[in-house]
UniProtKB/TrEMBL annotation:
Source organism superkingdom: Bacteria
Protein name per UniProt: Protein YhfH
Organism whose genome encodes this protein: Virgibacillus xinjiangensis
UniProt cross-references to Pfam families, sorted A to Z: YhfH
InterPro entries membership: YhfH-like
């Protein structure tokens, strides 16, 4: 059985649905847009 910590550490990075860049996740990150695409001035 795989160690739980190892499981979460090896998950692939989330990708932005708009541009495809990696998302820098925050503690409560459920979104699927990166900071650039989710910027209100965009």
């Amino acid at each position: 059985m795989q160690n739980v910590i190892e499981f979460f550490r090896t998950l692939p990075k989330k990708k932005c649905k708009e541009c495809g860049n990696d998302i820098i996740e925050k503690a409560d990150c459920y979104g699927n847009l990166c900071d650039e695409c989710d910027h209100p001035a965009r």
